[in-house]
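Narrative summary of target 7.
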Amino acid sequence: MIKGYWVALVDIEDPEAYKAYVTANVVACGKYGARILTQGAKSEVVDGRLRSRVVVIEFKDFETALACYQSPEREEVMAQIQGISTDIRVVEGYDAQP
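Modeled conformation, tokenized:
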């Protein structure tokens, strides 16, 4: 089965608001079996401009990733975002490795 992912680029203006957002988001994503692969780990911009933090969250498939993003739990989390700028894309993994 091909996995689904959230890829989020985040800028944090209010660190305390971000902590609350992360806590609430973990609960919402946990309901959908999500696994956080990276959340603000060391990164380097090698081409273009990125935000200050990169977050990648894995789901069992694309449909589950999208369902979680569109869920009531996620809407509640989004209402908490004050002082956080995000660009989030839900993507399907790639399974045809050489």
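The chain has a mean pLDDT of 86.
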